[in-house]
Write a structure and sequence with these properties.
It comes from Achaetomium macrosporum. This is Plasmid p 4b orf-3 family protein. Keywords: Metal-binding, Zinc, Zinc-finger. The protein is built from eight helices and ten strands. It folds into three domains: 50 residues, no CATH class; 172 residues, Structural Genomics Hypothetical 15.5 Kd Protein In mrcA-pckA Intergenic Region, Chain A (Roll), CATH 3.10.290; 46 residues, no CATH class. By secondary structure, it is of the alpha+beta class. α6 packs across α7. It has an eight-stranded mixed β-sheet with strand order 7-6-5-8-9-3-4-10, covered by helices on one side. Bound molecules: zinc ion (2 copies). One zinc ion binds next to loops.
């Protein structure tokens, strides 16, 4: 790699003299050129090592709603990996069990809640199966869906899926879309991306690109806070109530039942419960070990 103030085109007419205001290759963000002509001349040789840098993505589960502790994971993600890959990683990092449907969506910044939600609901459900019509507010510009439609998808997910659709929204398969197609796209840049898991509890994970990092072939979890949240607990309020059942010194019968359910029956329950500092426990080393097994070499 050339010095940062010398054009990376080997046959640059300016030779090795330094130049200010070099153009940065928008793909790898490493190679620099004194002109577009130099960039074009250099491309045939540069393209072999021009790779998009990883994204450092901070993923927050219901930011502002799930607190004390927040449940956050920050992950270095290969730009060429697909959203299906990212789904697998998020399942692992957040301790979910993959028993519900999911999608990724790019939010429409112009979305406003309908002025008359009751009227809309009546129209949506007036005849035939419920559906959103083109004239209603559009929440998402793009939705990336599960390519497999797993046969074990629960009735609760099927029942709610129509709410995720809109006639003016683009829908693609998650395994066909690389991360860079959203995060490097001028069309979607700056728009909020979410990952929703379980269309019943509607666990919304907010994705924010915090920076770039050197290319790796696999995902790496870098940091995070908060014990994984209980699946099928009843969304934000159910999680709050479960934590409360562990914080109280005098649990009611109902609270004791909640603990028992979580420790013995929940699909991602923790037999050690959530009392005391356990609520902050999650094992990043274990997540990273599993990531190595699942992605021996992703999309090189
Ligand atoms: Zn040049
Ligand atoms: Zn490049």
């Amino acid at each position: 790699m050339s010095a940062s103030n010398v054009c990376a085109n080997a046959s640059c007419p300016k030779g090795d003299s330094s130049t200010t205001n070099l153009l940065l290759c928008s793909r790898c963000r490493k190679a620099r050129y004194c002109s577009q002509d130099c960039q074009a001349a250099s491309w045939p040789s540069h393209k072999q090592d021009c790779r998009r840098q990883n994204y450092i993505i901070k993923v927050q589960l219901f930011p502002g709603k799930i607190t004390d502790p927040e449940v956050v994971r920050t992950i270095s993600c290969p730009a060429e990996a697909s959203f299906w890959d990212l789904h697998v990683v998020l399942q692992l990092a957040f301790g979910w069990t993959g028993t519900h449907a999911y999608d990724f969506a790019v939010m429409d910044p112009d979305f406003r809640v309908s002025a008359d939600p009751l009227q809309d609901l009546l129209r949506m459900t007036a005849s035939g199966p419920p559906r959103i019509t083109a004239d209603m507010p559009r929440e998402y510009e793009l939705r990336l869906v599960d390519p497999t439609f797993p046969p074990n998808r629960r009735a609760i997910d099927r029942m709610h899926e129509w709410q995720r659709k809109h006639p003016r929204m683009v829908e693609k398969q998650a395994d066909q879309w690389a991360l860079w197609k959203v995060f490097d796209s001028a069309k979607y840049r700056g728009k909020q991306v979410i990952y929703m898991y379980d269309f019943g509890d509607k666990w919304e994970h907010y994705l924010t690109v915090e920076g770039r990092a050197d290319v790796t072939d696999r995902f790496v979890c870098l940091s995070g806070t908060g014990h994984p949240v209980a699946e099928d607990v009843g969304s934000v309020n159910g999680w709050k109530e479960l934590k409360e059942a562990y914080r109280t010194s005098r649990p009611s019968q109902e609270q004791r039942d909640r603990r028992k359910w979580y420790e013995n029956m929940a699909s991602n329950g923790d037999p050690e419960g959530l009392a005391g500092d356990r609520i902050n426990f999650w094992d990043m080393e274990r997540v990273n070990r599993h990531l190595k097994i699942i992605f021996p070499n992703v999309h090189v």
